[in-house]
Each structure stands twice: as C-alpha cells, then as structure tokens.
C-alpha cells in the first residue's frame, strides 16, 4: 500500500462519523497535500472491493463510508434535518431477526437497519413555544 493510501486508511480508521469521499479528501489532504481526490476515490473503491470498507447511502445524494466490523451488528439513525448519523445497537432486535430467519428456514448471516427521523422537541419546549405564540396573538 502506498504512503498516500496509508494516510487515507488512517483517516478512515480515525473517523467516528461516516465521511463521504469529499470529506475524506479534505481530511487526508491536511495530512498529505499531495493526495488527490482521484486517489481517494480509487482507494475507497479498493478498500470496498476487499471488504475493508462499507458503502452506506443515507440519502443526500452521496455515498458515505465506514470500516467493516465483522461480528458486530449496529444500526443507524439518520437525522433528516442535518444528516447526522447516530450508531446504536439493539441485541433484542438482533435476536428477533435471528428468530425470523430461522422460522423462515434461513440461517441469519447479517442485516442492515437504517432509521430516518427528526429530533423531537421536548414537551417543555413545545409548551413554551405554544405559550409564546398565544402571548403574541394577544398583543396583535
């Protein structure tokens, strides 16, 4: 593996988010200004083809990436307002999916779950907003 590819691999392994190629390029080029976006694309494709990296589509028209984690099942909750991806685990859900696969005559191998949502406003904030709106209406 070339030095530039090692830098890109390090950026990926250090990432605690799910960067797209442009973000990977931005981070890698800070470490090595000779890295081109084409090198990042080629490296990502190579790592994906070798099962080291997984491509994710969380909407927004761009692929995002994360390191492959064998044996660990986690899920993603995507905030549709800001694109933030929250990883979580749910052993009870995984066990349920195993039972479903067995009931249908299959061996559970893997699964993928992506939830898309909007952050709920807390009841306290909702009440304040409602009160504020009522006060505005009284003074209008």
What features would you describe in this structure?
- This protein has 140 residues and is α+β, with helices and mostly antiparallel strands.
- Helices cover 46% and strands 16% of the residues.
- It contains 5 helices and 5 strands; from the N terminus they run H-H-H-E-E-E-E-H-E-H.
- The protein has helices at residues 3-14, 21-31, 37-49, 91-103, 123-138, and strands at residues 53-57, 63-67, 75-79, 85-88, 114-117.
- The strands form 2 sheets. Strands 4-3-5 form a 3-stranded mixed beta sheet, with no helix packed on it.
- It is globular and about 55 Å long.
- It starts with a helix and ends with a helix.
- Mean pLDDT is 78; it is low at 125-140.
Offer a concise description of the structure.
The protein has 140 residues and is an alpha+beta fold. It contains 5 helices and 5 strands, in the order H-H-H-E-E-E-E-H-E-H.
N to C succession of SSEs: HHHEEEEHEH
Please state the CA-atom Rg, rounded to the nearest Å. 21 Å
Helix proportion: 40-55%
Coarse structural class: alpha+beta
Record the strand order, biggest sheet.
4-3-5
Head-to-tail CA distance between termini: 69 Å
Unreliable stretches covering 5 or more consecutive residues: 125-140
Shape: globular
Counting DSSP E segments of at least 2 residues, the number of strands comes to 5
Give the helix tally. Answer: 5
Percentage of β-strand residues: 15-25%
């Amino acid at each position: 593996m070339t030095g530039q590819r090692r830098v890109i691999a390090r950026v990926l392994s250090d990432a605690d988010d799910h960067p797209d190629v442009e973000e990977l390029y931005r981070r890698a080029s800070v470490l090595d200004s000779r890295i081109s976006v084409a090198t990042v694309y080629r490296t990502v494709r190579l790592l994906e083809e070798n099962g080291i990296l997984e491509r994710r589509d969380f909407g927004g028209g761009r692929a995002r990436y994360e390191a492959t984690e064998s044996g660990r099942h986690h899920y993603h909750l995507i905030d549709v307002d800001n694109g933030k991806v929250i990883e979580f685990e749910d052993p009870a859900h995984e066990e349920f999916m195993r039972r479903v696969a067995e009931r249908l005559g299959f061996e559970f191998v893997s699964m993928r779950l992506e939830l898309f949502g909007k952050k709920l406003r807390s009841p306290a904030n909702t009440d304040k907003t409602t009160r504020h709106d009522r006060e505005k209406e009284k003074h209008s």
